[in-house]
Amino acid sequence: METILVHEIAGTAILTLLGCGVVANVLLNKTNGHGSDGIVIFFGWGLAVFAAVYVAYDTGAHINPAVTIALLIGPAKEYADGIPITFATTMAYFFAEFVGAFLGAVACFLAYKKQYDETEDAGAILATFSTGPTVKSHGWNIVTEAIGTFVLIFVIIMFGNTPSGLGPLAVALLVISIGASLGGPTGYAINPARDLGPRIAHAVLPIKNKGSNNWGYALVPVIGPIIGSTLAALAAHIY
Fold first, then answer.
1. Domains of the chain, start order
2. φ and ψ at residue 84, rounded to 5 degrees
3. Which residue from 8, 28, 108, 231 lies 20 to 30 Å from 82 (Cα-Cα)?
4. What is the pTM of this model?
5. How many CB atoms lie within 10 A of CB 63?
6. Per-residue model confidence as pLDDT tens digits over 92-124
7. Residue 123 CB-density burial (10 A; 0-12 exposed, 13-18 middle, 19+ buried)
């Protein structure tokens, strides 16, 4: 259990530090990357996943509750070094993933503290921590997140059935593809911890000029990925 906590906290922290960091670099004032194209964010998040998977490799590199859920109900009941996916280990993964996501977002804030101070746009500040829809429609936003997460989880499961040898690189390229293809409507959280952990960090950190935490939307990037990962695991049973 301790191994799960250490590796998954570290991996998910790296994920959100680098992922939130690339968004901060693009959106905050007075950064070297300010105003960069969205493709920078897609590649930044993909490479954040690439790094995080290596950090958490010994525990299967879930770094995402959607992955943990899929493994609990899907074809594979074990993942990485024979760690059984039981209710107890699932709770440990969840705890580590959310804590790691929170800590990574805090580290991102510390890295960009002066740039946050120079940014007055509260919406841009929140966007460096958590996702939001371009068109607010919670039902359809959930559909978008469910579809994106389905693609993530189903393809990851298929990776396990093919001798590609690409490992973390394959997952990173998949995340870049999802961002470029399906990230437009909601910002492609596709990971409840990645969104909720940093959103809580945004709420508690002393960020100058910050506004609403948009709690009314906060369940969308949790519910959507849960639905998507569940459907992907069930589809993998059939496939």
1. 1-237 (1.20.1080.10)
2. -70, 140
3. 231
4. 0.94
5. 34
6. 999 999 999 999 999 999 999 999 999 999 999
7. exposed
